[in-house]
Amino acid sequence: MKAKELKELTVEELTKKKKDFKEELFNLRFQHSTGQLENNARIAVIKKDIARVETFIRQKQLSN
């Protein structure tokens, strides 16, 4: 997800995105452990998305 798109979301929406990304990461890790994951790079992308969302949540909390 692009940073520009995340910047426009509220803290509640960002928290929901973070939850969705964490669920997806769990599913990807499960697929990886069972040998069903085809695109290993997707795990790294999701981890970066989670970090990006956490950064924007923190920025919005500090600005309030």
List the keywords:
64 residues; mainly alpha; elongated
Characterization of the model:
The protein starts with a helix and ends with a helix. Helices cover about 80% and strands about 0% of the residues. The mean pLDDT is about 95. The chain is an all-alpha fold and about 60 residues long. Helix 2 packs antiparallel against helix 3.
Task: Give a topology summary.
Layout: H1 3-7, H2 11-34, H3 41-63
Helix pairs in contact: 2-3
| Secondary structure: number of strands | 0
The sequence of SSEs as H and E is HHH
The biggest beta sheet, please?
none
Count of individual helical segments:
3
Concise synopsis of the structure shown:
With 64 residues, the chain is mainly alpha-helical. It has helices at residues 3-7, 11-34, 41-63.
